[in-house]
Amino acid sequence: MSIVFALATPPAKSAICIFRVSGSGCLEKIKALTGSSPNKPRTFYLKTLLNKDGGLVDKVGMVFFKGPESYTGEDSFEIYAHGGLGVMALIVDVFKDVGFEEAAPGEFTKRAFLNNKISLNEAESVVDVIDSSSAEGVYLSSSSLSGSFTERVVGFSDTIDFHRVRVEGEIDFSDEGEDFLDPSLINNLKTTIEDFSSFVGGCVSKKNYSIKNKVLFIGPVNSGKSSVFNRLLGFERALVSNVAGTTRDLVESELFYNNASFSLSDSAGIRNTEDEIESRGISLALDQINSADVVVGVFDSFNKDEMKRFSNLVHSKKYIKVYNKLDLGEPAADVFDCLVSAKTGEGFGALKDVLADAFKVGEQSDYSYMVRDRHISLFNSSLESLKDAVIKIENVEGLELVAEDLKLARKSLDAIVGVKTSDSLLGDIFSSFCIGK
Predict the structure, then answer these.
(1) How many degrees, rounded to 5, is the angle at CA 306 between CA 304 and CA 308?
(2) What pLDDT, on a 0 to 100 scale, did the predictor assign at position 307?
(3) What are the DSSP E strand ranges found in 166-301?
(4) What is the distance in angstroms between the CA of the first residue and the CA of the last residue of the chain?
(5) pLDDT digits (tens, 9 = 90+) for 68-90
(6) Which of 161, 255, 298, 422 has the fewest Cβ atoms nearer than 10 Å?
(7) Quick check: do 4-114 and 121-202+368-417 share a fold?
(8) Is the pLDDT of residue 60 over 90?
(9) CA distance to 5, 25, 81, 82, 437, per residue, from 95 (Å)
(10) Using CA atoms, how far apart are residues 314 and 295, in angstroms rounded to an integer?
(11) CA dihedral in degrees (347, 352, 353, 359; nearest 10)?
(12) Mean pLDDT over each residue of the chain, to the nearest integer
């Protein structure tokens, strides 16, 4: 394979940036890059990174790994440089000058799989951990990444092989007086089906943990809705002014709180207006109510008719009524779920808790592993094949057909962990990865 490199940290200004390099022969290039060769793997070195003309690019940290004792199973090294955009661009040029190629998405993890460092489902779990937006999602993905999921699947594969050996033995050697098959086979197969079904029941689809909690802020103009939105985020994301109708489009951002991620959207203040652009913003806000999981109404005073109007707009959606401007006094009626002051920050801890409760954040499930639709389909195929084998034995059908069902059941499990996996499937899986992973 060629020597590939990639930026493993976001392409944005930061304290440091990290580049990964992997491929046979990459360690021989270190001397050309730094003027000297490190001699001890897994040791942190301080190096001077040079361009092709010998000019200083940056003082960098470096660690190298000798294959197969590396993430990819190949010779590899990492460079830790200052996180300036100019530095990143120069390092890319330096790598290209010595013949390194830019890595495709998921290239490093793909190589780890191809070099038998990890199974296919463990490779998929890498990106699942990165994509997780809740603590439980991380735990479930990490359980698969740790290898315990692979061990369970391989264990069921071995059990199916044992049953198949008994059937195949009966087919091949029954006329020689060898007894491979006995009445316990059906009971053993049924036990395997029960155990496997229980295992599958402990797996949850990734879809359940990849959907962000959508929160939409609505309210009358000048109620401080955008100020509440900004205070929740901790920085000024939405434009704020005393002029009515300032927010004219959806402003979106994310909040991480209590082990969960929220997608927050600030919308235009709702009122009757002749302004065409503002009117379109209001229409957009009303449309977004349907796709929101929770709607937060922000008010700065109590008006019975206005409160009723907004409640009617929300219909059956989860609705949190927030009173803003608590620094100017409390509302005249006790109809709000939360009282805050965007100016002082008072009440925002309680507001975050109310949001968390609305999504039941932190509620633990009985699941053990996170899986994908591909895994679920293969699980079902394997179970159906096992059940077909039992039916054929009970109906005294040909043992050759039983053996074929067991072979198909095992084949489905092989596809989960990556035994004899097609190149097209690998392309689909690794295309969803980060460039530097």
Answers:
(1) 70
(2) 83
(3) 203-205, 213-218, 251-257, 260-266, 294-299
(4) 17
(5) 999 999 999 999 999 999 999 99
(6) 422
(7) no
(8) yes
(9) 8, 13, 14, 16, 18
(10) 7
(11) 150
(12) 82
CATH number of 121-202+368-417: 1.20.120.430
d(CA 72, CA 107) in angstroms, rounded, equals: 9
Per-residue pLDDT reduced to its tens digit, 128-166: 887 776 677 777 888 878 889 999 999 999 999 889 888
DSSP codes joined into one string, 282-318: HHHHHHHGGG-SEEEEEESS--HHHHHHHHHHHTTSE
Distance CA 170, CA 202 (A): 35
Q: Could you state, in order of their start, the residue ranges of all structural domains in the chain?
A: 4-114, 121-202+368-417, 217-358
Classify domain 217-358 at the CATH topology level. Answer: Rossmann fold (3.40.50)
Cis peptide before 68 (omega within 30 of 0): yes
180 and 173 Cβ atoms separated by less than 8 Å: yes
Range picked from 109-113, 125-129, 134-138, 245-249 for highest mean pLDDT: 109-113
Find tokens 């008072």 and name the residue: 346
DSSP, residue by residue, 122-155: HHHHHHHHHH--BHHHHHHHHHHHTTHHHHHHHH
Q: What is the pTM of this model?
A: 0.61
- Contact in structure between 143 and 372 (CB atoms under 8 Å): no
Q: For 294-351, how does the pLDDT look when each residue is reduced to its tens digit (9 = 90+)?
A: 888 889 888 788 888 888 888 778 889 999 989 888 887 788 999 999 889 999 989 8
Q: Is 73 helix (H, G, I), strand (E, B) or coil?
A: coil
Taking alpha carbons only, the member of 407, 369, 373, 370 closest to residue 388 is 407
Number of Cα atoms under 13 Å in the Cβ half of residue 100:
29
CB 296 within 8 A of CB 267: no
Q: The domain 4-114: what is its CATH number?
A: 3.30.1360.120
* Residue 18 in tokens: 């990290």
Alpha-carbon distances, residue 198 vs 163, 194, 367 (angstroms): 19, 6, 11
- Cα gap 125→418, rounded to integer Å: 13
Residue 80 near residue 410, CB atoms below 8 Å: no
Per-residue DSSP letter, 275: -
